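TEACHING EXERCISE
Course module: macromolecular assemblies
Task: Read the component lines below, then compare them to the predicted structure of the full complex.
Student: A.B.
Group: 4
Components provided:
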Amino acid sequence: MSAGDTAWVLASAALVLLMTPGVAFFYGGMVRQKNVLSVIMQSFSSIMVVGVLWALTGYTLAFAPGNPLIGGLQWLGLRGVWFSPYAAYAPGVPQLAQMAFQAMFAVITPALIIGAFAERARFGPLLLFIALWSLLVYDPVAHWVWGYGGWLRSLGVLDFAGGIVVHMAAGTAALASALVLRPRYDFDGSVIEPENVPFVALGAALLWFGWFGFNAGSALAAGGLASLAFVNTFLAPAAAGLTWMIVTWAVRGKSSVLGTMAGLVAGLAAITPAAGYVDPMSAIAIGASAGLVTYGAALLRVRMRLDDSLDVWAIHGVGGMWGAIATGIFADVGAAGLLYGGVRQFLVQLVGVAAVGAYVFAASLALFKLMDLAMGFTVKRHEEAIGLDLSEHGETAYPEI
Amino acid sequence: MSAGDTAWVLASAALVLLMTPGVAFFYGGMVRQKNVLSVIMQSFSSIMVVGVLWALTGYTLAFAPGNPLIGGLQWLGLRGVWFSPYAAYAPGVPQLAQMAFQAMFAVITPALIIGAFAERARFGPLLLFIALWSLLVYDPVAHWVWGYGGWLRSLGVLDFAGGIVVHMAAGTAALASALVLRPRYDFDGSVIEPENVPFVALGAALLWFGWFGFNAGSALAAGGLASLAFVNTFLAPAAAGLTWMIVTWAVRGKSSVLGTMAGLVAGLAAITPAAGYVDPMSAIAIGASAGLVTYGAALLRVRMRLDDSLDVWAIHGVGGMWGAIATGIFADVGAAGLLYGGVRQFLVQLVGVAAVGAYVFAASLALFKLMDLAMGFTVKRHEEAIGLDLSEHGETAYPEI
Amino acid sequence: MSAGDTAWVLASAALVLLMTPGVAFFYGGMVRQKNVLSVIMQSFSSIMVVGVLWALTGYTLAFAPGNPLIGGLQWLGLRGVWFSPYAAYAPGVPQLAQMAFQAMFAVITPALIIGAFAERARFGPLLLFIALWSLLVYDPVAHWVWGYGGWLRSLGVLDFAGGIVVHMAAGTAALASALVLRPRYDFDGSVIEPENVPFVALGAALLWFGWFGFNAGSALAAGGLASLAFVNTFLAPAAAGLTWMIVTWAVRGKSSVLGTMAGLVAGLAAITPAAGYVDPMSAIAIGASAGLVTYGAALLRVRMRLDDSLDVWAIHGVGGMWGAIATGIFADVGAAGLLYGGVRQFLVQLVGVAAVGAYVFAASLALFKLMDLAMGFTVKRHEEAIGLDLSEHGETAYPEI
Amino acid sequence: MKKIEAVVRLEKFDAVKGALEAEGFTGLTAYRVRGRGRQGGVRLQWRGVREFRVDLIPKVKMELVVDDGDVERVINIISRAAYTGEVGDGKIFVIPVEDAYRIRTGERGRDAL
Amino acid sequence: MKKIEAVVRLEKFDAVKGALEAEGFTGLTAYRVRGRGRQGGVRLQWRGVREFRVDLIPKVKMELVVDDGDVERVINIISRAAYTGEVGDGKIFVIPVEDAYRIRTGERGRDAL
Amino acid sequence: MKKIEAVVRLEKFDAVKGALEAEGFTGLTAYRVRGRGRQGGVRLQWRGVREFRVDLIPKVKMELVVDDGDVERVINIISRAAYTGEVGDGKIFVIPVEDAYRIRTGERGRDAL
Ligand SMILES: Nc1ncnc2c1ncn2[C@@H]1O[C@H](COP(=O)(O)OP(=O)(O)O)[C@@H](O)[C@H]1O
Ligand SMILES: Nc1ncnc2c1ncn2[C@@H]1O[C@H](COP(=O)(O)OP(=O)(O)O)[C@@H](O)[C@H]1O
Ligand SMILES: Nc1ncnc2c1ncn2[C@@H]1O[C@H](COP(=O)(O)OP(=O)(O)O)[C@@H](O)[C@H]1O
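Instructor-supplied answer key:
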């Protein structure tokens, strides 16, 4: 065991925890004032609900050795998860630290989804959804890709830090929700007035900061690989943000602040699966191309008049997916992508993307549909009109004004 | 000496420093707009005043080997505190790092208290209070519990990261202030309008993030114990936050955002003394029970019509106290609590709580009373009416609007 | 190579990255509402533009072995910068990590400058300025002082973490801009209404937090030296903040919140060059004296009626310069300052300050003048009137209100 | 000329604005206010520990200066679009205006509207 | 009917509101404004390095539409509750109202108040 | 007495305020509003992916209660200082005021201004 590795993994876990409040501000600043608390509350709830659930069942289902589809139950309630490392995952750190680090990933994934039905979801069903989705979708998919014996891991799918498991999965669930749930009553195919754009920038800053833990921490050791992932997590979003800045400038005549923030996050999502497998110049290429691809996806979403108004699908879904594919193209560290003759790796990445995409989409669609039928997932018209802060929580963000 | 341990302790110290600005926003968002700057200023002042004082006198009084009641003076002005470790505290890190880490604890404790007399304290007396309380109350108590030769440490009192020394002490001083100082002129037994609830959430996020340094850093080494403390610092607040969420839902019909944030912090305060002594399932139990206990305390405070309106006593005082007692019940790592036959440990914890509680309460009561008589601790009626930002600092938070 | 050192350098690099958004809020809160997004956008742009540029050319120009004036081109596009350490800089960490850490310094320096022409710079020319200044000013100066073979490094100039390279350079460029660029049309020698003072405090908190990485990370190893730098980064700003608090109290009758935040940052800038060379008591002395010196500089700036309204020159320029000189006075760790008989060291520091000051001033003056003539650096009168958020970015910070 | 001052629910503002535009009344000035009528005020939670009454609740106040002959129509449009039938629907007041002036053109009176 | 417009100190608003309620005047609309009168404006600090004058200072403006016969009483209540004797206590203006309309019920005139 | 209500551009407010002061009209009350006239509204970006029309644009509304004889002068001062010639310069309305009251002194009518 290594104190240095443990220090890095613990610091990284703390950084990743901060990302979920980052999501709260990133999303919260984009909704209207009457809904900002509801978004914050939903994000924090994801930490609390999934956190407890992860300790009870999630960790064992995702990471305990089991069959190719799901983990065993030997670590139920964290039984036996203790100070000694579990070498298959991280030989240098206590298993408790590896478990905590992974917990933060489980926590943020549902928090990302909530942007898709912001301003209209009922709080109770939302909590239930978070718990069920985490159990039925996140845990199995994490097992497939990262779990000891998981079938996609065995196949050789590369997903360094969750481009598939976290971002593509969240974005795909967001797409499913936008197809199943009614749009906001006042949604006209267009968008909404952001309450507080500086909060969006604050959220983006916390996300970027935390993402260094997310990606570089995924090396689960403090060495060259972590350093590489760190560098790539710095360069790819810079390139993606610049791309959105330039594209919005070219298209609209002025560079958009909100667009640049979206671009940053898109670049982060895209580099996530690739962070430890590509060199820095490839990271710039992946970031820049991700900027273009996600901008196109955002345009498409508007054209489809889908009320995934915070663009969870376009930014995280498409960004993460593109990153997973790009890993199959650019990989040159510990693996060989298409550019380096790795045809098989490229195809394997496609299989990974397709398999996870299909399962997450189908399962999420079913879950949203069933829950909506069974209990109603969205609020009543007049509740939406007065805003979720008052109707769901009996509070307002700025009572004094 | 270990680079890994040092990296972790330095990172933790930085995390803990961030908690005091976290308090500034957590409290600042709950007061009215005309007082938000004063709360921020008071919190930052605690960093500055106690920071300098700690280097001059605080560290030696608390941590230098001395008698059972107070530390010696050999480290006055940090003389001799340098690169080599002081093995009784942390064999793996330079003593300077251990000193800096502890400085952050000294800094945040008075900052927690200021919530009790928010919106009515004069700034000058407040600064003096911070300095005197730190010298007369914090330093001795830290020595008793943590100092080499301190009598409670010798007795075997367990306080992993300051549930007694920091949270219970701050909450007890808050209670004393609420008994001695006049309530706000416009206090009607009820509460106030929070200026900015998203700031409260921001503060809660920074607190939680920083608390990983607070608790897991208190292992003073990056290994299994730190990992355990980390995990517990994740699970207990999640459980406590969920508890407040559910209780407010049950009692009021809607789950409260402010309440959930209060619950998170209560869970953090409660797990602080226990973090390295209990297993994760016990942490969940401690968090959930802390949620109930602190909710009850908050109700009681309202019923007593005490103007400790940000509930420093209910959240930190009662939360920290309950955590210290719970450590005596649930401890099963490196110690045995009541559940594991440790009757003595349980009683020792009660002694620790009672001794510190009594001393802090009496000393704080006397200090507030004397200072109030000598110089007046609270502002004049019309100063309170126009708000402390203008009356004490000549500035307003949002001059433009 | 050491996992502990690597963990610390990576954590530090993440901390330093967070400082640039810290600047965004520190500055953004001080401008008027109609310009807050422009300041945020400019800060984030510095991360993106300089980040990509650093990987392509900046790192090699600054850090590759070359001649005394500029680095070689062997690391262009990060060629060969990989997992093994480059011993001349940091024997314990992968060169990629050292590169990433330094990237954050290159990123924040131009972001500091933008405060000098807030509320009136055109976005396009600003981006070009950031790129050119980074290339023509920052990279050479970093090479002189820190680069292997750089002439000031060879001479023995001490600049632990960038008091000269980052803060004095940024402040000097700010001064040049204030002399060349037109003031704001509505500038009357006085100042402006800050939009959101809590944002200023948030920015100060993120800056202080990140500065622990900035200074203590500059040890490039997790040991005694990092711990010392950490402690000094805690004490000096505390002393400087207290100084501003007291001085504003004495001069104006009330202690200023904005002034105290300015003092904190001034103390941080001043301790930066000294952090690993002085003992903690000297750090307090440097901080307190920096408080006085920068307060005087701020007064002078107002008297000169210069429209460097966020006081980049007074705080960073003068603070960093004073710190570099003070290093030549107080140094007693690994070097000897004036107080310890080190006359040569003192003179060498003066040479370093003079040489960098002269070059940065001349080059920045020329750059601003040429760019202003060639393309116009500032917006039109009516664009300034409606604010840069709308005129440059087509967005507003709070569209809803 | 008359000034129509209407205090309506926040959530009805878009509908009212749209209805006015549809009937050709584009000119208006609006701002957030807090009001109290017969309506009780909302109860907000304080951490779920206790409620507190906010007896002034957020509303939008709109002002339209119109020709005398349009007053009834405007009242009609607003009251239809703002109606829910619940307490708190709001009020409309009619206030005399003696003159109007358009800054850009210098036009006065009815022409300035 | 008349509209009473009163500009009062922020810190007196609660007292004024309470006094009006105590005498049965519950209906009112209020909002933050910034005003200037004979009063000088406040001086704020800029980092303690220099002062800047904010010549418009924050106030609350309240509007109550009342029956003609209540005008004097309301002026009395407000002016007593808002009084401090210092510059900046504020002003009250009386403006004619020609009609009132309650959206919920369709009542008009005095009945609508 | 008359109340002059002027809605002007945000960026012209300082100039208007200064011009009024220069001519001796210090008393005024001002607040932010959002307005719509013939002017189209601004187009804002949404992440550069699509525009959205904000059809109400921010303005400042100023109110001055003045003596009948000062009305023309005040209109003149405001309209000169607020003028740009572009759509959106704003409007001025004149409304009768029946009485005024200074809270601090109890003065009434013209003396209260
Ligand atoms: N007498 C009044 N003077 C000024 N504003 C009033 C008056 N009465 C009501 N209002 C405004 O109208 C709003 C709605 O009035 P309310 O009485 O709640 O509705 P309703 O007429 O349906 O009972 C209030 O919030 C307040 O802003
Ligand atoms: N002529 C006026 N027109 C409109 N509002 C006014 C006028 N004079 C004063 N006010 C408003 O009344 C407030 C208080 O006036 P002020 O003159 O400061 O108080 P006092 O009457 O005690 O001298 C001002 O802030 C302003 O909002
Ligand atoms: N009929 C009206 N009633 C009330 N306010 C109006 C009216 N017409 C215009 N306004 C206000 O005046 C502002 C400027 O009007 P606008 O028509 O845009 O300028 P212009 O007169 O130059 O065409 C609007 O934003 C609105 O606040």
